[in-house]
Amino acid sequence: MCNLPWLLIQARPALSSTRLVMHLLFSWFFFLSLAPRRAFSVFESVAYSLIRQCGPFNVSFFGGELPDALPLTLTIIPFDSTPLAFTIPESAWDNSTNFGSYVTFLPLPAGVSLMASLDDAAGNSATLISDILQVMPSPNTSCISANMTTPAPFQLVGNAVSQCSPFNVSQNTSSLEHTLSVRGFIPMSLSFDLEGTDFHTSQGVDTFTYIMNVASGLRVALLFDDSQGNRQVSDLLLVGGGVSSPSECLGISAAPSSQSAVAQVGVKGISRSAVYVMPRSARLIYLN
Question: Mean pLDDT throughout 241-260?
């Protein structure tokens, strides 16, 4: 799988080839539709380590090349909690071997479920997001405090989302000068931004409306950010809907082959297209 014999690979149940191709194609659709083409640079492989309570976490990435927008950031997305972000120095990447690695300490207790994402400085995925990871037990309790909970600055109204349907997010403290951005993370996929369609405020509470441009049946976590230091991750949400659900927000046309895809998205009447040939070796690796 790679030429690094010291990596311990943990076997994971394999998807069928058809399902894997469809899943990866869907991942590229979202990213290509919503990200600037010049910023698109995906490492061919990424390895995420297991996580233990109050312990280190390692991400290794290889193949491909560094994106134009640097530095890289490791974003940790614990469900229904506060995200963590770690800046990765350029020295973590070796151009001669096309290999990069970064280790950081995660102050998280056992039982926390999360995803990890390697991002460029523009907020685009630089490789595939991890699968759902769970922090494992450890005798190390140095990161555990008496009160690790903080009031949630944002609230998903209704706690349910559906394909191509609007949903609301409320912010308890009104801040008319600052908008709320929402970024979606799908396990083993790529992240994407959600389009805001409406905003209103009443009695000190701001309410933002967005369109869930994710197909029904997929799971997604939402990261809310008001650019003022307030950030929060939603729970892992199952996107609802069915055959009768609206689908125009997905804007996906049939792919001409299993190795290429065409995606179209309309944003306020502007239609954009992007074509990309998928790397045959794009894959996730999990380390012991």
Answer: 63
